[in-house]
């Protein structure tokens, strides 16, 4: 009987504990939901404030970027105007430089053409000499062969 009472008492305590935990869980859920419901408008306002702040920052940075670009453009134009005064001098310098380089090029080309003509003539002369020598050797060889053939014919006769 005592054991049964103890088991019953333990089950009763267990049920009470589970019921308390369930109630506590409900309470926590309620508080969390209430907290979130309270936070939603605050989060929305913070988001709007941040969006407005970001937009202002972007506009400020965009204005700064535009002004720096305008300043750079003005400096570039001033630089161009300043350098345009030297344009004639630059063209004159370029013309002198090209003329001097052209004369050097033409001198080298002339020297090359002369060496080329000399080399062609020397090679032509060498080929003429070789052909002449080959013809002479061929003539003497053929003559000797003819003589040899004639001797052989006479021997056969």
Automatic annotation (TrEMBL):
Cited InterPro entries: EIF3A
Q: Name the GO cellular-component terms.
A: eukaryotic translation initiation factor 3 complex, eIF3e; eukaryotic translation initiation factor 3 complex, eIF3m; multi-eIF complex
Q: Which domain of life is it from?
A: Eukaryota
According to its UniProt entry, one GO biological process term is:
formation of cytoplasmic translation initiation complex
In its UniProt record, a GO molecular function of this protein is:
translation initiation factor activity
Q: Which residues form a coiled coil?
A: 3-34, 114-149
- Record keywords: Coiled coil
What the entry lists under PANTHER family is as follows: EUKARYOTIC TRANSLATION INITIATION FACTOR 3 SUBUNIT A, EUKARYOTIC TRANSLATION INITIATION FACTOR 3, THETA SUBUNIT
Q: What is this protein called?
A: EIF3A factor
Report the source organism.
Brachypteracias leptosomus
